[in-house]
Specification:
This protein has helices at about 10-25, 30-50, 95-105; strands at about 1-5, 60-65, 70-75, 105-110, 115-120. With about 130 residues, the chain is α+β, with helices and mostly antiparallel strands.
Amino acid sequence: MLELRPDPAELSRMRQFIRRRAVEHGLDAAEAFQAQLVATEAVTNAMRHGGGVGGKPISVTCIWRTDGLTIEVGDRGRFQRRENAEPDSEATSGRGLGLIERLTRRFELETSASGTKLRMLVGGAV
């Protein structure tokens, strides 16, 4: 597990962590890049919406299973759905979960009083 401060300077360290885990488990270069991309999006969202208040840490965990690499990002915020699920074409934010959904084999979002967890499955046999 990796704990991050809610600071964009931590993204590089997180990407290195994800890449190491992806390579350790045999993901190819494209899958490793995909893992880094979705993790970056999830952690950036956590920094913006769930970790910034009080500087609470963001956790990143990688778990290898037979169906691929599961990346879990946890923060202390509460996920709230937007009224308009589709961002307009001029919006500069609001596309993160859609991007994650398209680039992962599966993702799950869990929110509770203690925070939010996003689990994303990448790589592995299809």
